[in-house]
C-alpha cells in the first residue's frame, strides 16, 4: 500500500546561521566568460549566449554557518510502497535525501552521516547528498537551503502524491514537483512542472542532481559515445567518451579511478532513450530516466586527488566518497532555454534500483555495457510508461491540494499581493496564502498596501530585498512623497536602481538616504559604487566608516578588510582585526584576511602563527586557493623572496599541508 506522510530525521546538521543582510550588489561571475566554444554546434552556441543572470538579488547570501554540526530534528516527507521508501527534506529545497530499496535495505543515494554546509551554491550554503532540484542558473539553486511548500493530494487511482512547490524570485517562475510511488512500482516518479505566469519570456535552467556512492568499481552508464567536457582551461571540448585522451588509458566511466575532477555532458543521439545510471561491482545501483524534454545527462566527480578528497571529507566525512549523475533540460549547464510567457513545461523523471549482469557492464566494451543497462531499464520501466505518467500528471497539475503539510517562504504570497489585479499567481494547484507572509515580507507588504515602509532604527540592517519594475515603481512613488521618503525607502530605491542598471540614480538615492540618517548600509553600498568606478581608496574610507557604525556585523567586517587590503592599507586592516571581539576575532575567513594583511605588512611572525596552527575557513569556495597561495608566499618571504613567486625547491622543502589543499585538478 502506497503512503505519504510527514516524519522527522535526526541528523548532525550545521546550523545555517543568520543570513547576510548586505545586498549582493557585485555582479555574478559569468562562467561562460571568454569560453572557447568552437567545438559547440549552433544550437548550443545560441543557448550559451542567452539568459545569464548578473545579480543574486533579490536573494542574499547564506554565509553564517560553521563546521559545528549538533544533532537536529529535520521535518521530512516520506513516500513508501513495498518496493521503495523515499524521504524528502522539506526545509532544504525539497532535497530527496534518501531512496531505500525495501527488500535489500540498500540506500541508492549518497546519504552522508551529517549535513555539512559549504560554499558551493549561488547563495554560498550547500550540502552534499541525495537528489537536488536545481532551478535558476549555473551554480546550484538559490533555494538549496530554503523551505518548500508541501501539500498532499490523491490521483484518481488512489495513489497519494506529495507536491512540493515554490516561487523562484530571480526568474519569476513557479515550479512544482509531484512525487509519488504507485503500489508495487519499482520506481519513484517525479513530475516536474515549471510555469511562467508572466507575459515576458523567461530563461530556464533545470538540473536534477543525484549523488551516489563511489567505489573504484562503480561505473556510470549513459547511452552516449561522446560528451562535452568543460574545465578551467576555458574550452568547451567535444570528446569521445569514456576514453578521450590518447595518452590516458583511464576509463572515465569509473570515477573512483580518476585522480582529477571533471564534468562530462553526454551527447545522447536523437531517438535514444534518456537515462543515466551508476552501478557497483555487482552490477546494481541507481538509475534515472525521464521523458524526452529532459535532454541532458551529466557525470560529475571530484577526483581522487588530495583536493577532491578534502572536499568530500569536509562535506560527508572520511571514506564517504560520492559522484553525481545528473539530468537537465539543456545539454550542458552553461546553457539556458527560453520559456515563453504564460506557458509551462513539464516532464516525468523516474528513480529506482537498476540490476544488471555485472559481466555485461564491467569489463565489457562501452557500447555493450550501455546496451545492457538500457535493456535492464526497458524491462523495469518501459519508455511508454513514462509517457503515460506524463499525460496523467499533466492533467493533475492544477488540482488543488487536499492537505497542507509544510509551509515554504512568503515571497510567492507577497508577489501575488504586489501584482494585485494581474492575478498571475492566483494558482489553484500551487497556492501562495497570505498566512505565509512573515517578517521578511512585512515591510514590502506595507509598501504595497499603504505606500510606505516602516522605518527601523538606523543601526538595524534591512532584513530582505525586493527588486524589479514593480518594486522600483512603488519605491519611486514612496520617495516622491516627503512623508514617506525615509532613509529606509531611499536605501531600497538605491538597491533597485543599481539592480536596474542605473548606478548614477543609485548613488543619488543612497546619498539622499545618508542625508536623513548616516548608516553603515548606505556607506557600504556607496563603497561598492566607488570600487566599481575604480576608486579603491574612497571605497576603503567608506568601508572603514561603515565598520565603525556596525563593528559587530561579520559580513561587513570581512568586506571592510578586503577593501582595505585592496587599497594597499594592510595595517589599517590589522587594526580592525585587533579590535574585534569573539567569536568574530577567530572566524576562519577573518583569520585568513589577517594572514593576508600580515604578509602584506611583512609581519611574518603573525602570518606564521595563523598558518601553522591549522587555519580552517568555513566558507572556502571551490576554485578559491588562498590557503595554498599564502602558505607558499609565507615560505618564500621567509627564505628572503619578494612575494608569491615560489621555486620548486622551496615547495619540496615546505610541502603544503593536506588540510590546505582544496584545488581540484582538471584537464
How would you explain this protein's 3D organization?
- By secondary structure, this protein is an alpha+beta fold.
- It has 18 helices and 25 strands.
- The strands form five sheets. The protein has a nine-stranded antiparallel beta sheet, with helices on one face.
- Helix 15 packs parallel to helix 17.
- The chain is globular and about 70 Å long.
- The two termini are 49 Å apart.
- Pfam families: DUF5107.
- InterPro entries: DUF5107, TPR-like_helical_dom_sf.
- This is DUF5107 domain-containing protein.
Tell me the total number of β-strands: 25
Helix content: 25-40%
Task: Give the strand order of the largest sheet, numbering strands 1, 2, ... along the chain.
Answer: 15-19-20-24-12-11-10-9-25
Structural class: alpha+beta
Low-confidence stretches: none
Task: Provide the descriptors you would attach to this structure in a database record.
about 675 residues; alpha+beta; nine-stranded antiparallel beta sheet; 18 helices; about 30% helix; globular
Describe the structure in brief:
With about 675 residues, the protein is an alpha+beta fold. The chain is about 30% helix and about 25% strand.
Question: What's the arrangement of secondary structure elements?
Answer:
Layout: E1 3-12, H1 42-48, E2 71-80, E3 84-89, E4 95-101, E5 106-107, E6 118-121, E7 124-126, E8 131-135, E9 149-154, E10 160-168, E11 173-180, E12 187-195, E13 202-204, E14 206-213, E15 219-221, E16 226-230, E17 236-240, E18 262-266, E19 275-279, E20 284-290, E21 296-301, H2 306-316, E22 322-328, E23 337-339, E24 344-355, H3 358-361, H4 366-380, H5 383-396, E25 403-406, H6 411-419, H7 439-450, H8 469-479, H9 487-499, H10 503-516, H11 520-532, H12 536-549, H13 554-566, H14 570-579, H15 588-601, H16 604-611, H17 626-638, H18 648-653
Helix pairs in contact: 6-7, 8-9, 9-10, 10-11, 11-12, 12-13, 13-14, 13-15, 14-15, 15-16, 15-17, 16-17
